[in-house]
Amino acid sequence: MNREETGKKIYQQLNDEEFLVNDPELNAIMKNYIYGEVYQHGTLDLKTRELILIVVATANHTLKTLKQHILSALKCETEPEVIKEAIYQCTPYIGLGKVEDALDVVAAVFQQCDIVLPLNSGSTVHEDNRFEKGFDVQSAAFGRENIQANHDQAPQELKHIQNYLSAYCFGDFYTRKGLDLQQRELLTFVMLTTLGGCENQLRAHTAANLHVGNDRNTLIETITQCQPYIGFPRMLNALAIVNELAK
User: Fold this and answer.
1) Are 180 and 190 in contact (CB under 8 A)?
2) Does the structure show a pLDDT above 70 at 1?
């Protein structure tokens, strides 16, 4: 099959609703490229591809695209709790406003699909242990000595930032059910790539991805899946960092 035929096949598998309905010419270009080429590249399974694009759309605040990929994720049998967790994971990195709008889209799609809300809570920590549990998972990604040094060496006026990172970013989010550390780090890599201008943080989380088992090929396949929605400049910036750290 040529790319038009393969693209049409996987598009119909994943989508019930059409996109770019008012511009059939760009629709054809993008459908052939996204589904006929990008989705055919690499070995990522469909669930992972759709979670990646849910995170891209959340970080980009492109809510129409977000709805499309939530529906696609459900069509390939992604659990609703996993979809919710992928968006929750965005909160410390892209801020509350975009996440709130994304969760409104999630709620509307779930109601459309007769998914009963609210979903079960994914929280595993409480007030007395969120810092400790967050410090542990942060250390698993970045190394305990490094994280302890960040706390110890921070100036007094910046120690609260290190506490927020351990207790809030990692304690309140990375410890939740639904996604493991490897998945959460991959999705964080996606967020930072999508946002652009976060090269220092992207470099740190690329190293963390490599540390927790997401190898160079996985990161390249992930960047490839993002490309139609983030453009080539951000893709190439992320690729340069992956190549730098994976030597």
Assistant:
1) no
2) no
